[in-house]
Amino acid sequence: METNTRNIHAMKPIMALQPDQALIRVYGDLNDFLPLHARDTWFVRPCRGRETVKNLIETCGVPHPEIGALLIDGRPVDFDTLVQPGVAIEVFPIASAPETPIPLRPPLDDRRFVLDTHLGRLAAYLRMLGYDCLYRNDAHDAELARLAHEERRILLTRDLGLLKRSIVIHGAFVREVIPLRQIVEVMRRFNLTPAPTVFQRCMRCNSLTTPVSKAEIDHLLEPKTRQYFDTFRRCTACGKIYWQGSHYTRMQALLERALQEGERHVARSAKRERFEG
Q1: Any idea what DSSP says for residue 201?
Q2: Model-level pTM greater than 0.85?
Q3: pLDDT tens per residue, range 143-200
Q4: 161 and 238 in contact (C-beta within 8 Å)?
Q5: In sequence order, which ranges of the chain are alpha helices (DSSP H)?
Q6: For residue 191, which phi and psi values (nearest 5 degrees)?
Q7: Are strands 133-134 and 241-242 parallel, antiparallel or unpaired?
């Protein structure tokens, strides 16, 4: 299988390198992790031939779960390849990585998530969409990394140090800080649409909910809830009761806004690509 290099648009510059140096070029939104002087251009990095390309690129600031493909002198390599002085390294984000015969990580069977302590509202939105999403506001970094690795979950975090942990295979740094923009960002990055279990996952504990008769939970309802609503769901784990009240209407509106914003972004991106092409 030949490498598809259609995304490679920067020729290796002609420049003299010291015996202990390598050239690096980073593409796309991976430039977010670099200092300004190194963005969208080739830059020099010390290289003594004793470290892997994964380690070398991470010392530049780019976390390995964000990387979709690596080329050394135009040849695809994996994370464990030792970097020799004098080579040119190209680093591609997952969204625009060239097709290569060397995948950097195994594919995911489904999209399940684990989130760090900074992303509680995003976790609620993902559960609202119906996605299996682990979150605890007291979870330690080591536990989050372990869960991501052992349960093959996508780690979402605002902590670069956590994302760089070696056992993390799938993950992403969430750029946005406003929760509504965060859910749009994550939906776009992982091509998410509402899951079959949309509005059927407990916002409190992540377990699935099931329909429950009003008679069975009548003694647990507030008077106005009992008076105005007849259809209910109950969490199979924590017992929290849900009904389509004002909170449901607000969540539905929020979800629609996120979907619309995601569609607008796709349209803008397609228009920009046609213009640049």
Answers
A1: B
A2: yes
A3: 999 999 999 999 999 999 999 999 999 999 999 999 989 998 999 899 888 899 999 9
A4: no
A5: 53-60, 120-128, 141-150, 160-163, 179-189, 214-217, 223-228, 246-276
A6: 50, 50
A7: unpaired
